[in-house]
Amino acid sequence: MSINLALILTLLTAFTGIVYLLDVFVWHDSKRSSEESRGGRQTLVEYSRSFFPVLLIVLVIRSFVFEPFRIPSGSMMPTLLQGDFIFVKKFSYGLRLPVTETKILETGSPERGDVVVFRLPQNPSINYIKRVVGLPGDTIRYEDHRLTINGERIGLERSPDATPADPVYVENLDGRKHEILITNTYSVKDDVYTVPENHYFVMGDNRDNSKDSRFIDAIPESHLVGEAVRVWMHMDGLSWPRWDRIGTKIQ
Q1: Mind telling me the catalytic residues?
Q2: CB 5 within 8 A of CB 59
Q3: Is 132 helix (H, G, I), strand (E, B) or coil?
Q4: What is the model's pTM?
């Protein structure tokens, strides 16, 4: 069972805010209620006065500024590791209301190479993270671990830091270089894809172990959550945090 944290946080903020307003404009001058009911009500008011500002600040930051996200798998290796905790910039692709995800302000669109968090179209309660490869209207060919976008073959070379046995390569998307992981001799799901309007074609950097647009189709613009920008913690299971991961900028 999935938990909708945005809904819970919104309801708690609304409830404490309503109690606070009732106390200010209605209950404060009421003389009819019994001493016992006022005592119980006063406890509720005190809790609401204490929690409402905190909940409101958290709701605003989480909905419109930054939201924390934990990397649950290795599909974005070597860029992101399982156990990384990252910040997602919520205002990169528009401001959206919490819960309904209705866009209220346009602030920008994804660019090729952006690492984005999105709601899975088949199950919007689940968030995925992948890299934007194709923009609306693009024709994407993926063949033998190489991308061709609108007829232009994308640069791919072995990482200079890789050992002979290390399958790490550097991909160049519109001048934005990032590392990808190629583990199989034969590439997975070779095909040609056309990106519909208002959709984005996304792929994991772990190209042979990623459930991305090759399998789940292009992602609607309405399902974008935000841009992944920085790692703020790494902890996988009960192991010690990896201090070298803290503060890493997501390329």
Answers
A1: 75, 130
A2: no
A3: strand
A4: 0.88
